[in-house]
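Spend some time on this chain, tokens included, and walk me through the fold:

. . .
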Amino acid sequence: QVQLVESGGGLVQPGGSLRLSCVGKGIVFGIFDMGWYRQAPGNERGLVASSFRGNRAEYADSVKGRFTISRDFAKNTVTLQMNSLKPEDTAVYYCSAGDQLEGRFNPGYWGQGTQVTVSS
């Protein structure tokens, strides 16, 4: 079965960093576009970062300059490096393997989510 296994979430102080990882099982990430989403309590799930064929990456304005999405094809892994974290970054983060629809990331498979809490 297809599984997207996420790790790296946890509690971090404002200004700190976390690195989220998503490992694919039963799926080859190299033939998918990849995305990271997050969902905070009371909010809808929103796209944070996406990585497309051709090494193109896009970021939400709220995280641009602080977050970096990257791929490791040999390890079948996509990561999200999060720096200068703010309390408003607190959310459950989800990895997704998908494709493009109308030039934008279209999610397909989902990970189970990993909690990121930014607090003193």
